[in-house]
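Question: Now follow the chain.
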Amino acid sequence: QVQLVESGGGSMQTGGSLRLSCAYYGIPYATSCMGWFRQTPGKEREWVSSISSDDTTDYADSAKGRFTISKDNAKNTLYLQMNSLKPEDTAMYYCAASWRTCIDSKRYGYPYWGRGTQVTVSS
């Protein structure tokens, strides 16, 4: 059974840092793509970053230069290091996994999702 469990969210002031973690279970070691998304009430879910099975990374413009995605296959954990946080980063953050490539996952979606962890950034 596939399971994704996020942690590491919290409240932070502008300019601070947080590291989100996503422990994953039941996903093959060679899973093709894992990603982070975020969503605020009343808005569509927004893709933030993704990492492929060969560790190729990709970022939304809003995340470039501030966020770093990584994964530790030995620990079955996906990470999102978030630096220089801004109030507009406030959202529920979700991790997701897909057997597709990251390019196809953007188009066709991710089949596996966690329940999210809340990040709140105050000015």
Summary: The chain has a mean pLDDT of 94. Residues 102-108 form the longest helix (7 residues). The CA atoms of residues 14 and 86 lie 5 Å apart. The longest strand covers residues 18-25.
